[in-house]
Amino acid sequence: MPAITESHVIDSVADALQFISCYHPRDFIRAMAAAWAREQSPAARNAMAQILVNSRMAALGHRPICQDTGVANISVRIGVGARIDWHRPLQEIVDDAVRRAYRSDTNPLRASVVADPFGRRHNTGDNAPAMLHVEMVAGDRIDIDVSAKGGGSENKTKFAVLNPSASVSDWVVGTVEAMGAGWCPPGILGIGIGGSVDKAMVMAKQALNEPIDATALRDRGPATREEELRLEIMDRINALGIGAQGLGGITTVLDVKVRSFPTHAASLPVALVPNCAATRHVHFVLDGSGPATLEPPDLSDWPELDFRDAWKDARHVDLDHLTREEIASWQPGDSLLLSGRLLTGRDAAHRRIEQLLAEGRPLPVSFRDRAIYYVGPVDPVGDEVVGPAGPTTSTRMDRYSDMMIEGLGVSVMIGKAERGPETIATIARNGAAYLIAVGGAAYLVSQAIRAARVLAFEDLGMEAIHEFVVRDMPVTVAVDARGGSVHVRGPRQWRMPA
């Protein structure tokens, strides 16, 4: 048997990271299409349509599905009989693959990894290092799972050590209900039960790489306690009415994956890891014959649909002449098509603004009566003015709401997921509004951006303040000028009786 070399690993992992940036797994496309077909909530159905259209566009254009091209998660299972011909630590080898993939000239991916996590948090610039997990297993080959995990879903990871007599289902359902929409449903839940803290977390994350088979499982019936638990949790979560993007609907999870392991008699560790609507992973095997070959989905896997039908009655909004009176006329759930100039800014930019104000220094940009979009775009290629540019989770910006809305006069914010009660109160007090774009539709959103330039904080890279010129950018009113929230009304409407 020929040896498995460094180049086999580097070429395969780098190709896999590029591959998953553009292609949803085939089973995910089919599961999302089936969920879209049976969805009864117009808002959730529209959101799913955008996700599916974006997915097909990304595949055809070979550009990232989501602007958050994720941290590289690499799970390697090395057969004890495998012939290995490398002389460096596997971490170094895999990191070389990550650098190659994320620095690609033809499809650059957004570097999101920061060093010194509790200090300066400067960006490594190449998305290395990878999050690597290695196991020794039976056999004579190497199995590798490559996934890209975005911050929105990763940040919603939960862990608890329950009493051994507690209900895992109750804990998971209660936890998901409290998580909000920041993890970009509909997606997948990975659950690890037993083992230890670290074992449960690894099981939960690795379970996300398993094929989506909830429908087949339901058809044949569960054969194990894990399978019974999968269906129970899935049904209970979907009955919550959270729906796509938290807008209210009948599908919040497409599948629930459960792995278990023996544990201490006094403990019941449970880890919960969600995967968003930009679920991205691929599995391959190395046997010494060369790098892996990856097979993309077929165009027939996507349904034929046009999300624009749902926007034919949307209100057109001119951002350059927007008044507080017009903002006051918006209602939660209204569909808007934005045109004109808007600013961008997210975590690092908001921190920089806060620092400048604390030091009494002037700001480089006026925010008075402007719209700000929470986004960290991918670098453009070819004739693009900007790469994929979907929204980031808005709740991270809640701590800056008083500063931005009351202090600096921002009138409209655009992001994804819900806002906290204090931010909603600030919005209502100032007659502002909060709008959402669909998380997981970054390439689709970028098509509405006709011009882009950096206005301030260029050293922050993708977190710099840009000015975008947009035409017919699709958004939904999430919080209106009176504090009404679609993330409260939607799930309440679609929740099933207990």
From TrEMBL:
Q: Which GO terms describe its biological process?
A: generation of precursor metabolites and energy
Q: What keywords would UniProt list here?
A: 4Fe-4S, Iron, Iron-sulfur, Lyase, Metal-binding
User: Where does the Fe-S hydro-lyase tartrate dehydratase beta-type catalytic domain lie?
Assistant: 288-488
Enumerate the Pfam families for this protein: Fumerase, Fumerase_C
Q: Which residues form the Fe-S hydro-lyase tartrate dehydratase alpha-type catalytic domain?
A: 11-284
Tree of life domain: Bacteria
Which cofactors are named for this entry?
Answer: [4Fe-4S] cluster
Q: Which InterPro entries match?
A: Fe-S_hydro-lyase_TtdA-typ_cat (IPR004646), Fe-S_hydro-lyase_TtdB-typ_cat (IPR004647), Fe-S_hydroAse_TtdB_cat_sf (IPR036660), Fe_dep_fumarate_hydratase (IPR011167)
Family note: Belongs to the class-I fumarase family.
Quaternary organization: Homodimer.
Question: How is this protein named in the record?
Answer: Fumarate hydratase class I
This chain's source organism reads Paenirhodobacter populi
